[in-house]
Amino acid sequence: MRILTILLVVGLWRAAVLEETNNAKSLFKSIMEVDRALAEEIKSDISEAKDKKDQLKDQLSQEIQNTVQNLKDALKEKVDKVREIEKAYKDQKSADKKQAYEDWKNLIQGINETKVAWEEEKENKIAEVEKEIQQLLNALRLEYEEIKKQRATQQKDDQEKYRQACQEKMEEMGCIQEASNGSSSASSGGRKHQKESTLEESLKTTFAMDKIEDVLDKVKAKRQNSVLVEPRATVLDEITGVSAWQTVTWILLALCIIMGVALIAMIVYQVAHHNKYHHLDGSNHPGERTPIARNMGPGYLGEGKSSPTPMSSAPPPGETQQF
Fold this sequence. Notes:
The protein is mainly α. Helix content is 83%, strand content 0%.
């Protein structure tokens, strides 16, 4: 009856641990979805900036074309007028020739003034467009920094919640272990402690893998955003704040961390499974006694081997028979 009670307590404890693990996974999944949404929002803002830049370029090009066309029309009118003046100059007398010369001089001066005014207007338009683009990029950079700070704060809060949840779960596990130590043997207590350590290492490994996947998703999202923006290197450097080789270095570092975590997980898995194997004579632990009797199969009888003499005919007080 005591063994059934212990098994029931252990089963309830395992169910509670699985439920807490699922809650932690769902929490990290929601964090990843928020990061993806933020990446999509930044991508949309950069796309809108690019569209606005193209629109401003098209508008400036259209205005320049209109100005050039107006200048051509005015020049054509002036040329026609010059031709008329030349014709009148040939037909009229010397007094008319002087007036025609003055008109020609005024025409040349007007053309030069029109050209200077057009150049100034063109430079002003270009300066205004560049200023608007720079202001838009500055606004996007500030918004990105604000989102980055909010995300860092949220991640710290989530990590603190996760740490508190793990601490509470470890305290509950400690209470259950103390309750079960009164009715279990020293070897079973050691195996429960080993399972507890294995579970803690598994939780830490899962948490580290989730954080590494989060970093890789951020780097991948930034690389996807950089493909849609021209010029690519300039805007990517302004958004990330680092150069291209530093981004590659972070990617390689993340891959090294993944390989290290995978190696640690394999070692923990092998150690956890290795501790489950025990010798048949029950001498794996110094405090463990020799079993009451061996199971004699047909193979033992056929080979002529005899079973060793048992030390006692009943289990010691305070211990249960291990099967």
